[in-house]
Design a protein that fits this description.
Blueprint lengths: L6 H12 L4 E4 L1 H7 L8 E4 L3 H11 L2 E6 H4 L1 E6 L2 E7 L1 E5 L6 E6 L3 H6 L9 E2 L5 E2 L4 H7 L1 E2 L5 H7 L2 H13 L2 E2 L3 H8 L8 H13 L3 H10 L6 E6 L2 E6 L2 H4 L15 H9 L6 H9 L11 E2 L5 E2 L3 H15 L4 H13 L3 H4 L4 H12 L7 H23 L15 H18 L13 H6 L7 H13 L7 H18 L4
């Protein structure tokens, strides 16, 4: 069973065993192994205290690269070029603010250590021989796809408010149903989020949005009211309150035309979110693509009495920018998500446009200043295609209560056509130059062909514009001919050129 673990983990486990200490792989690595997954990292707990671990490492020639032993009983070792976190058996001590452990108290047994953990699927340990220690039936919960808290959900969430966000994140990562007590406990303890730092909350949000069942995890965050809470950030020595995602709560129960949408606005979003590609950009874009629906000035009523939300893409773009800036996301991410939200309604109608019209759309974006190069533009349109396919999947998902609809009866053929169009748009974007560096000829090439360097600042943008206008091919031969003709005309104009 030792083959369960990589060699650098075996090295650490054997080191402790050789010197008479207990040592176990614990937490997420055990969970992943039992699920048939390859763990990304391994955490080890041991009966050895930090000072004893340091002594053993010194004798074995292992480096301690991080020392949190004094406060948290944790050392990070460098073994075969890999970082391994080693912690002493410990209990967590919580202060009056109950938002993170104020310290640790060492304990004597593995079972005591496991008792402090948040969820049963993370409260399992495995020794070098592969023997499982599972005092809270985490393996059973894995088999039944249930996320269960160790002990009372209210107690665990009141100790550390971040565990509520972790519950949502693990639902997103594992696709498990939360036990019955989790939802009411989060509802009761959600106001405690106000003491959490924005950085801790955002770290959990990022993991959630990248997860394969992101929609399910985010739905728990919304249904519990946790999304409507605030956290805090420290600026110039003073804490400021930062709303997390209250805008999402406004979407719950907002009706849509049942001929096209089997869900309310929020139901559609979280179903679509389960079809993301695992990137943070797409996670945010899918989450916020319909955030403008139902708003004053957007929500209208059609002549047939059905609701409509004309212009929600534009309103949603502005809201997405505001939300992401508020949460401290970087400018590149904000701009890309804004582009995706603002353009997601173009995808459907564009499927029926001729190539010339699609090219005009690409040219407009290429000249907007939002993109650095062709590769950047092409990636944005790849993401747009993925967003719109997820949008379609969220619309055609089963589970609506209205009976058969246009949405739920969409044919596999229509989905295939949408994918084909997304591929077509991606390929076209790959041929649209954004910057003069995207041209098939460089300034150096032109100089070598006899074009003076002093005129390149005028010539290259002209060539770029002609290629973008589709009246010049982006090939070295065509560009060189066009440059030669232009330079000949410039010389004929006289010395002023």
């Amino acid at each position: 069973m030792a083959a369960l673990f990589p060699s650098y983990v075996i090295t650490v486990l054997e080191l402790f065993r050789k010197h008479g200490f207990e040592a176990y792989v614990v937490g997420g690595a055990v969970r992943d192994l039992l699920c048939g997954k390859h763990p990304h990292d391994y955490d080890i707990v041991t009966s050895a205290r930090p000072e004893e671990t340091r002594r053993l490492c010194k004798g074995a020639g292992l480096s301690v690269v991080e020392n949190l032993g004094e406060n948290f009983g944790v050392l990070v070792l460098l073994v075969e070029g890999r970082a391994v976190e080693v912690a002493a058996y410990r209990k967590e001590v919580y202060g009056t603010d109950a938002h993170r452990p104020s310290g640790v108290a060492y304990c004597q047994t593995l079972e005591e250590d496991l008792a402090r953990r948040d969820f049963t699927v993370n409260a399992m340990a495995m020794d070098l021989a592969g023997n499982l220690t599972d005092p809270y039936s985490g393996q059973r919960d894995l088999e039944h796809h249930v996320l269960r808290v160790v002990g009372s959900p209210s107690d665990r969430f009141s100790e550390d408010a971040l565990r509520m966000f972790r519950a949502c994140r693990f639902v997103a990562q594992l696709g498990f149903l939360p036990e019955a007590g989790i939802l009411p406990a989060i509802k009761a303890e959600a106001p405690r989020a106000k003491g959490l730092s924005l950085s801790r909350v955002k770290a959990e949000l990022h993991k959630l949005l990248r997860a394969p069942y992101a929609g399910q995890g985010m739905n728990l965050m919304v249904q519990s009211g946790l999304a409507g809470m605030s956290c805090r950030i420290k600026k110039e020595g003073t804490y400021e309150s930062v709303p997390i995602l209250p805008e999402l709560l406004d979407l719950v129960g907002v009706p849509q035309n049942p001929r096209f949408h089997p869900f309310d606005v929020w139901g559609h979003i979280w179903h679509a979110l389960d079809h993301s590609d695992g990137s943070l950009t797409l996670g945010w874009a899918i989450l916020l693509h319909d955030v403008g629906k139902g708003r004053k000035g957007v929500r209208g009523i059609r002549p047939d009495g059905m609701p409509s939300d004309h212009g929600h893409d534009k309103v949603g773009k502005a809201m997405a920018e505001s939300i992401l800036h508020r949460l401290g996301e970087n400018g590149a991410l904000v701009n890309r998500v804004a582009f995706l939200v603002g353009n997601h309604m173009h995808f459907g109608p564009a499927r029926f446009l001729p190539d010339a019209a699609l090219w005009r759309w690409l040219r407009k974006e290429a000249r907007s200043g939002a993109f650095r190069c062709t590769k950047d533009l092409q990636e944005a349109f790849r993401e747009l295609g993925t967003l719109c396919l997820a949008d379609m999947a969220g619309t055609t998902a089963s589970g609506g209560s209205e009976g058969p609809t246009i949405a739920t009866t969409a044919s596999a053929e229509s989905q295939a056509l949408a994918r084909h169009f997304a591929d077509q748009l991606f390929l076209m974007a790959g041929t649209m130059p954004v910057h003069t560096a995207d041209l098939a000829i460089s300034g150096r090439d032109l100089i070598a062909a006899g074009i003076p360097q002093r005129v390149l600042k005028r010539l290259l943008p002209l060539l770029l514009s002609r290629v973008q206008d589709r009246n010049l091919s982006n090939t070295p031969e065509a560009l060189q001919r066009a440059a030669d003709i232009w330079w000949k005309k410039e010389k004929e104009k006289g010395p002023t050129s």
